[in-house]
Each structure stands twice: as structure tokens, then as C-alpha cells.
């Protein structure tokens, strides 16, 4: 039997980005995702689209590994293949839209504790957010995906204030959560939201009978590096956080 090519890939900012991130009109060439109302939201450049089409033609299995919830993954127009999805920063492993039973068993002992920690973190941060953004420009929301508590979402219309970033770091330690943050958004996540653990779990299922398969991984942020290490080779865009960090190390 011919060895298969398995691709595990992050989505946003690896294969496409929003209109805000790609403001130049001539770059918004290929639709990649829509919003909740079905309106165009994310686009690929011509080069991204060409490389993705090459992956589609050559990969036997394509698995999204994304911070998106499972229902947000459904709004992505790029083709996945093989049935598996790793969603909500690695909190969920689904097969054809249903949580894999063995993964559900792995999560079950931790769900109540995670729900409590996320709610406590939200309650702890709400007074500060109200002071920093009295106009409601910063939003806190505990998200569930397929009934699993997955993270406390922090979204801002502008760059997150330094005081809030510091408070998020303190809250992550206080309530036993992981912090993932960029300029405008942040997420406090339970410990089971781990892309690398989810990727290893899926690969164990896939490689058990086909150990000679080749695994290729794609990602853009430093938080992707651990899951990218589960592959035989890893690829990062040259405008990514990973690449910028590598350039700093190389100097």
C-alpha cells in the first residue's frame, strides 16, 4: 500500500486572514470563510490559494487544528479530508462532527472543574473590564463547544490595554488556566485545550495501522509549535509570528 500524506494544519493567519488583516483590495482574491450571517469574512492571497490547491491534490488526509470552535470551522470553505477536526484550541477532537468517544472519556473528569474556573475568571475580570472600557468595547464571554467548556474569550475593538493583559496573566495563574493572547484578542483556556495532545491522539489512531505515513504540519503562531512537532516536517508562513521569532534567533 502506498504511504499516505497526512496534513495537520492551523487555519487563520496560516491559510487565510480577515479583511482587516488584509486591507489591500487586490489581495482579497479567494474566499476562505464566512461570518455567522454567511457574509464573506476571510480571504486567501493568490499564493496561499495556489499552495492550498496543491495540498488538496496531494494530501490523503487534511485535518484542521484550530482555535475556532467546531461550528466556526463549518464556516470555512477550504476542503478538509478524512473526517477529523481538532477544534477550540485542541479542546475537541471530532470525527464527522461528533466528539470521538475516547476523547470524550479523556475530557469527562475535568469538565466541572474547568467550567468553575472559567466562570470565576470571568467574574474576577469583569470589574476591571468595566473600568477600562465603559463603552463596552471589550467583551468577555465563556464559550462552550458541543457542551464542552473551552475558553473565556476576550475581544477588543482596539489593542488590549496593558493593565488587562497583566490581569489576564495573573488570572491564568490564579485559576489554573492557559493564556493565549494577541493584539486585540485573548483566551483563557482549561489545561485540556492543547493542540499538541489532540494531534498526538489523532495520529495514534491514524498511524496505528499505517506507521509509515508521512505527516506534514502547518502553523503560524508560537502556540502552534508543539503540535507542529508531531509531524515529520513543519511549515510556517514567512510573515508569521514563528518566522519573526526565528529571524530574531538567527541574528
TrEMBL record:
<protein>
    <recommendedName>
        <fullName>Sucrose phosphatase-like domain-containing protein</fullName>
    </recommendedName>
</protein>
<dbReference type="InterPro" id="IPR024197">
    <property type="entry name" value="TPP-like"/>
</dbReference>
<dbReference type="InterPro" id="IPR036412">
    <property type="entry name" value="HAD-like_sf"/>
</dbReference>
<dbReference type="InterPro" id="IPR023214">
    <property type="entry name" value="HAD_sf"/>
</dbReference>
